[in-house]
Structure formats: C-alpha cells, structure tokens
C-alpha cells in the first residue's frame, strides 16, 4: 500500500499566533462571563425574584441598580421597582410583582460576588480588546473584513487570527 504524503501543517507567523492567543482567551472570558451571569439569574430565581421575566437584560442599567439595592439591603418591592429607568418605567407594576420573593442576606452575599466577577471579567475583556487592536494594527488592510455586513472588528480579528493573511495557500477563488 502506498502511503499518502501529507503536507506539513500550517504554522502561522508569531504575530498571528499572538493575535490568536488573545482572541481565543477573549472568547473563553466571554463564555465565563455568560456563565456567571447565568448563575446570578439562577440565584435570583432561587430567591423567587422574577426580574428576568420583566427585564429583557437584568444586567442593564436598571437591572444593575436594582440588584445593587438588593445587595445593600433593600427588600421593598415598590422601592426596588422605582429604580427602573427609561423604558423599564412602563413596567413598574410588573417589577413590583417580580420583587415579591424571599431574597435574603445569603443571596445578597452570593450575588455581590457574582456581580464583582462579571465586572472584573468585563474589565479583562476590555483589556483584551485593546490588545487585539494593537496586534491587528499591522494587518490594517486585512482588518477591512469588518466592512462585510455582520462582521465587526472582533470577528475580523478572530478570522485573521485563525486563518492568517497569507492567501497564497488558497490559489483559486473556488478553493
């Protein structure tokens, strides 16, 4: 049997490998932040606080203000609902009902840790975004990928990080 020769695997240049490391770590942190937000939402549900039923994003300005008040010891549903801003103001009655739960100091302790972790992860992601901007700068012509509808700067950086900029390995458009 004749052995088929395989081509050597693609090893990107150091600049692309560094970009790849940072974009992959960013994706991991986004996943970790999502998991932490899910834990916080589950904790509120455990306390029979149904904020996520009323608010589309409990981590928005209004939701964060309400969670901060819960952590600080506020338990009055009317007072908590009054923290709603802009469009959420139209849902005051539903918010009052959502805060009829059994949120305890135990829940406050855990929620404070979860929100701190979300905030720290947000800060880390912002730092990675700044680093991605630095690393992608030399590839500014390739970074024009973000001009494609649906491809933003982060997605463009991920594409460059994963496939590089050398398209000579793909000799024809069909390939």
For the largest beta-sheet, the strand count, sense and barrel status come to: none
The rounded distance between the terminal residues' Cα atoms is 29 Å
Determine Rg (CA atoms, Å). Answer: 23 Å
- What is the count of DSSP helices, taking H or I runs of 4+ residues? 7
Helix content: 55-70%
Strand composition percent: under 5%
Could you give the count of β-strands?
0
Poorly predicted parts: none
Structural class: mainly alpha
User: Shape from CA axes?
Assistant: elongated
Q: Secondary-structure element order, as H and E?
A: HHHHHHH
Mean pLDDT: 90
Summarize, please:
The protein has helices at 14-46, 51-54, 61-72, 77-81, 92-98, 105-136, 153-163. It has 175 residues and is mainly α. The model has no long low-confidence stretch (mean pLDDT 90).
Detail the topology: elements first, then pairings:
Elements lengths: L13 H33 L4 H4 L6 H12 L4 H5 L10 H7 L6 H32 L16 H11 L12
Feature tags:
single chain; 175 residues; mainly alpha; 7 helices; 59% helix
Give a verbal description of the structure:
This protein has 175 residues and is mainly α. It is built from 7 helices and no strands. It has helices at residues 14-46, 51-54, 61-72, 77-81, 92-98, 105-136, 153-163.
């Amino acid at each position: 049997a004749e052995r088929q020769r395989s081509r050597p695997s693609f090893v990107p240049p150091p600049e692309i490998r560094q970009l790849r490391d940072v974009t992959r770590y960013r994706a991991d942190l986004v996943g970790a932040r999502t998991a932490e937000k899910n834990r916080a939402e589950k904790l509120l549900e455990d306390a029979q606080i149904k904020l996520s039923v009323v608010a589309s994003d409990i981590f928005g300005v209004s939701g964060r203000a309400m969670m901060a008040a819960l952590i600080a010891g506020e338990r009055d549903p009317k007072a908590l609902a009054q923290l709603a801003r802009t469009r959420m103001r139209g849902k005051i009655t539903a918010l009052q009902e959502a805060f009829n739960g059994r949120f305890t100091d135990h829940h406050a302790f855990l929620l404070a840790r979860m929100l701190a972790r979300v905030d720290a992860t947000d800060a880390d992601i912002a730092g990675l975004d700044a680093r991605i901007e630095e690393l992608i700068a030399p590839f500014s012509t390739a970074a024009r990928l973000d001009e494609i509808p649906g491809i933003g700067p982060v997605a463009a950086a991920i594409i460059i990080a994963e496939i590089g900029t050398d398209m000579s390995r793909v000799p024809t458009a069909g390939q």
